[in-house]
Amino acid sequence: MSSGGCSTCLETIFSVVLPPLGVFFRYGCCSSEFFVSLALTALFYVPGIVYSVWVILKTPPEPPGIDGERPYYILA
Fold this sequence. Notes:
Layout lengths: L3 H14 L1 H9 L4 H12 L1 H14 L13 H4 L1
Helix pairs in contact: 1-2, 1-4, 2-3, 2-4, 3-4
């Protein structure tokens, strides 16, 4: 995966264009953040954008672990 700053920038851009897509890249498709973003975007587009950008910017990306994808504490 790319560096933390670059991935956050790309996720933010995707969140403005299609809000659930940016949240999907950060949290995956089976998270509550994704479903809230999907519902807000389906009902009202602008609240979906605001929520998605807020969710992405509030949580820093996880640092890569030993295998490059998962943090080391998950591997144990």
